[in-house]
Specification:
single chain, 323 residues, alpha/beta, Metallo-beta-lactamase, Chain A, 7-stranded mixed β-sheet, 5-stranded mixed β-sheet, 37% helix, 20% strand, globular, disordered C terminus, binds zinc ion, hydrolase, RibonucZ/Hydroxyglut_hydro, Metallo-B-lactamas
Length: 323
C-alpha cells in the first residue's frame, strides 16, 4: 500500500465525504470530518482552539458554500474535539453528542486544560511542551443542543448517517459516525493511527469490543481521531496494542506487582517505539482499576505527570508520583 496522503487540510474521500486532517496527530492535533447531503452537511467534531477551527471552517468553504452546515456531531467530550463548538453554534447548526459526552463538556474542563499550561514545575513544562501551539484561553464551553444514548440515525439531506455510542472506552461518551452508503466511518478517538491510544475511561474490554464492532461493519475507509485516513488494518493493529497491554497488565496484577512495577516491566514489542508511548501509564492503571476497583482514579494532571516521566521528560518525578 502506498503511503497515505497526510497533508494538513481538506481531503476529498469521495461520495460526499471529506476529512480535515491535522498532522502529526499527537496531543491536540485531531481530525474532523464533513459529510454532505442534498443542500446541507454534517460536521464531525471541531478542533482544539478557535484559530484552528476558524481555519478549518474557512477551508471547508469550497464544500459548505453549496452544502451549508446543518449539524455538528461531537464524537466525544475531549477538548481537542469540542473546543471550537462556539464558532459553529453561532451559525444555525444543531449540535449532537452522546448524553455521557454532554455531561463532560463543561467550562470547568475547558478552563482546566488552559490552566495546566500555566503551572510551574514539570507538569507545566510538559503541558507547554505538548499544548504549546494551541490558544486555549477564552474558550466558551458549548455543549450539544440534543443528546442521544445508544444509536441515533441522522438525515443529512436525504442521506442516512448513523451515530453509534461505543463508550465508555477512550472517554465515557465515545461515539462513532457511520456513513453506510459510502462504506465510510469517522471513528473519533476510538482509533488512533501512528500514535498510542489512551484509555481515560475504559474498561479496555469495551474499547476492544468497539474495535470489533468496527471490524464487523461494512466499511472500507476509516477516518481516525488522530492520524492519516486508514482502514481495517489499522483498526486491527490498534486492537493488538490494547490486547497486549491488557494481557500483560493482568498477568502482573496476578503476580502481585503494583501499578508502577507493572508499567516498568511491560514489554510492548513492536509498539515500544510508538509516539506517545508514555500513555502506557494510564492504560495499565486502567486495567488495574478494572481488576481492583479500590485503586484510586487519579485526575488527568497526575496521569500526565506519569506520562511525562515515562517518556523521559522528567525521570526524577516518576518514582514519587502517586497512583
Ligand atoms: Zn483527540
Amino acid at each position: 500500500m502506498s503511503a497515505p496522503d497526510y497533508r494538513k487540510g481538506l481531503h476529498d474521500l469521495g461520495q460526499g465525504c471529506h476529512a480535515w486532517l491535522q498532522p502529526d496527530g499527537s496531543w491536540g492535533w485531531s481530525n474532523a470530518g464533513l459529510i454532505t447531503g442534498s443542500g446541507t452537511s454534517l460536521l464531525v467534531d471541531t478542533l482544539f482552539d478557535l484559530p484552528l477551527t476558524r481555519e478549518m471552517l474557512d477551508g471547508l468553504r469550497p464544500v459548505t458554500d453549496a452544502h451549508p452546515l446543518g449539524t455538528l456531531v461531537n464524537t466525544h467530550s475531549d477538548p481537542d474535539h469540542i473546543n471550537g463548538n462556539e464558532l459553529v453554534a453561532s451559525r444555525d447548526v444543531e449540535i449532537l453528542a452522546s448524553a455521557a459526552a454532554a455531561e463532560l463538556i463543561t467550562q470547568e474542563t475547558v478552563d482546566a486544560v488552559a490552566l495546566v499550561k500555566k503551572l510551574d514545575g514539570t507538569l507545566g513544562d510538559f503541558a507547554r511542551h505538548i499544548f504549546g501551539p494551541f490558544a486555549l484561553d477564552g474558550i466558551t464551553a458549548t455543549g450539544p443542543d440534543r443528546t442521544f444514548t445508544g444509536e441515533e440515525s441522522v438525515d443529512v439531506g436525504g442521506r442516512e448517517v448513523r451515530l453509534i455510542q461505543v463508550g465508555p472506552a477512550h472517554t465515557p461518551g465515545d461515539a462513532i459516525v457511520h456513513v453506510p452508503d459510502a462504506r465510510l466511518l469517522y471513528a473519533g478517538d476510538i482509533l488512533f493511527v501512528g500514535g498510542t491510544p489512551i484509555a481515560w475511561a475504559g474498561p479496555i474490554d469495551r474499547w476492544i469490543a468497539a474495535l470489533d464492532l468496527i471490524l464487523d461493519l461494512d466499511v472500507t475507509v476509516i477516518v481516525p481521531g488522530h492520524g492519516p485516513v486508514s482502514g481495517k488494518a489499522e483498526v486491527s493493529l490498534m486492537r493488538e496494542y490494547l490486547v497486549t497491554v491488557q494481557t500483560q497488565a493482568r498477568q502482573r496484577y496476578e503476580d502481585g506487582l503494583d501499578v508502577d512495577a507493572a508499567i516498568d516491566t511491560i514489554e510492548l514489542g513492536k509498539f515500544a517505539e510508538l509516539p506517545e508511548h508514555g500513555r502506557l501509564a494510564q492504560n495499565v492503571l486502567n486495567v488495574y482499576q478494572q481488576l481492583d476497583p479500590t485503586i484510586p482514579r487519579p485526575d488527568r494532571l497526575t496521569v500526565l505527570t506519569k506520562i511525562a516521566a515515562l517518556e523521559g521528560f522528567a525521570p526524577d518525578t516518576f518514582s514519587t508520583a502517586t497512583s
